[in-house]
Amino acid sequence: MSPNEPNDKPKPMEAPPPEIDPGRYDGPSRAAPYPLTRTAPAYDLVNAAEEIQRADATLAQMTGGKLGVIADQIARLQQEARALLDKARVDAELHRVECSFEKKPGGIYHLYRRRPSAEGLEGVRWFSRLAPDEWITPQAQTFEGTFRLELDMSFTRLDVGDGANSRGGPSAEAIAALFERGRRP
Q: How far is residue 18 from each of residues 11, 14, 15, 21, 37, measured CA to CA in Å?
């Protein structure tokens, strides 16, 4: 075999390959995660443990804060769910109130409760289209409220509040004032 001929045979190993320490950085020094020169500050296990503790404390604080926000959101959602269920219960009760006409969305209805009578109709609730001030003769009933039937078949109370109902629409007084203006010539 001459020195110019290619050597296709593998060379025998003179020594085993060096073991690579998996914890030791083996790349360029400018990208090292810790200092590699003698003049660099010492990096020991205590420093690593302190950094881990600081990271754990920060993570715990951040996680606790986020969980607190989620807990507040859950409480608000539960409160909204309770309010929604209460509203649905009231709407269902109002749909079961005695009514001698067809209720239509957008209509305004007045809720009354019959006073005790000899016929045994004590406490029966019923809807009327007549407001309390529109009755000509006194009636044996108690006025309980004015409601508007919405498109979603829920009721909105119109006779309470400060000029607007719970959905932001006009109050019963404002509606009555509009009707009064419409009746005048």
A: 17, 12, 9, 9, 22
pLDDT value at residue 49: 84
Select the more confidently predicted residue: 3 or 148.
148
158 pLDDT above the threshold of 80: yes
Q: Please name which of 88, 133, 85 lies closest in space to residue 110, comparing C-alpha atoms.
A: 133
- Kindly state whether residues 106 and 154 are assigned to the same domain: yes
Flag whether 59 is in a domain.
Answer: yes
CB-based contact 170:164 (threshold 8 Å): yes
* Mean pLDDT score, 7-20: 72
Pairing of strands 108-114, 141-149: antiparallel
Phi, psi of 46 (to 5 degrees): -65, -45
pLDDT digits (tens, 9 = 90+) for 113-133: 887 666 665 678 889 998 888
Domains contained in the chain, number: 2
CA proximity to 154, closest of 113, 119, 118, 103: 103
Strand, coil or helix: 19:
coil
- Based on the fold, state whether residues 80 and 129 are members of the same structural domain: no
Phi, psi of 82, rounded to the nearest 5 degrees: -60, -45
Three-class DSSP category at 168: coil
